[in-house]
Amino acid sequence: MAVDRLVALPWSNVYGLARTLVALGTAGTLAFSSVDTLFRPVALAGDFPSCEGAASAAVFCLAKGDHSGLGWLKWLCVLALLVVAAGWRPRLTALPHAYVSYSVFAGIAISDGGDQIGLVLSILFLLPALGDPRRWHWQAPPSDNGSRARCGWALAGSSGLLMLRLQMSLVYFNACVAKLPHQEWYDGTAMWYWSTNLSFGAPGWLDTLVRPVVSTSWGVALMTWLPLLIEITLAVALLLPRRIRHAAMWAGLLFHFSIGLMMGLWSFALAMAGGILVLCLPSGATITRRRPQSTGDLVADPGESAAVRPPARTAA
C-alpha cells in the first residue's frame, strides 16, 4: 500500500490552549477597563467608538452615544470571550471570537499591540476551529471514521496553523531587527529608559528589585540584549530542533510574563503566549492516506494519536 498524502490533524489542546489565552487577553482588556476609559474622545482621532468606514461593523457601534448600552455590549463580549476560553464548541465560537476581537481593535480608544495580535490570531484560528468536530477544544483529536469533508477541514486547519506559525516568526523577526538601528538597543542601555519610564516602568513593589539591576552596566545590558536573543530565536524557531525550540518557547513565555508584570501589558502578554505555543509545539496528529486495491482508507502513522477514515469505496 503506497503512501501518497500526509495531513496533520490540527485539533489538539495545543491550539485549544492558545485560543484560551488569546480570548482571556481580550476579555481582560474589556472586563478591567471602564466604559469611560474604553470609549472616549482621542485627540486627532475623534470620538470612540469610531463608526466610520470599516469600523462601523464593530459591535459597539450598535450603542454609540448610549453609555449604558456600551456597558451591556462590553459585558456581552466578555461573556462570549469566556465561552471561547472555556473551549466549548470551537466550530460555533470561532466566528464570534474573531468578530469580538475585531470590534475591540476597531472600536475602543486604547487599543494596543495586544489587541492587534489578538485580532490576527483569532482570524488565523478560524480555519482550524470551523472544522473542529469536538465538543471541547481540550479533548483529544477525533479517531472515529469520517468523510472526505473531514479530511478537507483537516487540511484547511493545518494550513491556517501553518500561516499562524509563519506570522509569529515574522512578528519576532521584525521585533528584533527593528530595534537594532537604535543606539539604546545595540549599546545595551534601552531597558534603563523603559524601566524608569513613568508610564511603562516597573510598579513600586517591583521597582525595588529592578532598579538595582538596571543601575549596573552588566545588569542593564543583560536585560536589554536577552530579549533580542529570545526574539531572534523565536523568529527561526521553525528551523530549530525540537529540544531547542521547546527551550525557546519557555524563554518566550517567561519574557512575556515579565512584560506583563513590569509594564502591565497583560493582553499583549497573553496573546503572544498563545502564538508562541502554536509556533513551538506540534500542532496535532498525522494522518496518512493509503490506497489498497479496493479501499481508500486513511490510517494514522505508527505512534500518532488519531486518524480520519473516509468510508471505503466498493467496486461497482
UniProtKB/TrEMBL annotation:
It is a multi-pass membrane protein. Keywords: Membrane, Transmembrane, Transmembrane helix. The keyword Ribonucleoprotein does not apply. Residues 7-284 form the HTTM-like domain. Signal peptide: none annotated. The chain crosses the membrane at residues 72-90, 218-241, 253-279. Its main location: membrane. InterPro entries: HTTM-like (IPR011020), HTTM_dom (IPR053934), Sporulation_SdpB (IPR023894), Sporulation_signal_mat (IPR052964). Residues 292-316 are annotated as: Disordered. It holds the Pfam family HTTM. It is found in: Endomembrane system. It comes from the Bacteria. The keyword ATP-binding does not apply. PANTHER family: HTTM DOMAIN-CONTAINING PROTEIN, SPORULATION-DELAYING PROTEIN SDPB. This is HTTM domain-containing protein. The lineage of its organism: Bacteria, Bacillati, Actinomycetota, Actinomycetes, Kitasatosporales.
